[in-house]
Amino acid sequence: LDFETIDFAVPRLIGTRPYQQVPFQFSAHVEAADGGIEHREFLSLDGTDPRRPCAEALVESVPTTGAIIGYNASFEKARILELAAAFSDLSDQLSSMADRTVDLLPVTRANWYHREQQGSWSIKSVLPTIAPEMDYSNLEVKDGGSAQEAYLEAISADTSFDRRSELDQALRAYCGRDTEAMIVLARRLGGVAND
User: Fold this and answer.
1) C-alpha to C-alpha distances, 23 to 76, 99, 119, 150, nearest whole angstrom
2) What is the pLDDT of residue 195?
3) Could you tell me the pTM of the whole model?
4) 134-147 burial code (b ≥16 CB/10 A, e <16)
């Protein structure tokens, strides 16, 4: 599971505080018992408060059992708990998700290091050393900062329909790459640990 968020210095949404990380997008790759993987996602670019639709999509998309894996998962866990606090009718389901969230970052640190990471444990630094074919260089949106810029451009009244559609696809590709990267890291690191 991976979220993309926006943090307005001056809150634009009722019930938010300055610099609160408001999720406007998530990507989840859900693995079934038979090993099959299904991609589920949410993205709101209509300029309205995305929190309620995001919370509802999470409850609908994420299974009620099993681990939820994040990379530096304290971020994802905090977003889930904020949504649980904001929407009491979804609180039980969301709190359960937060309780089941585990972090791939410590597993990576314990089992892998490559000099090309140059001391960084960002998934964007680790991934090219494990799976060079999965870098972010060919994506329009390449990191969280550019995801925020793309979101702001997409919700602007001045943005054309065609450009908003391009930004929609770029954001989906970027967030999806992050969760695909976690699958690759988990599988490759599982092989390293087993060796």
Assistant:
1) 10, 19, 28, 14
2) 44
3) 0.92
4) eebeeeebbebebb
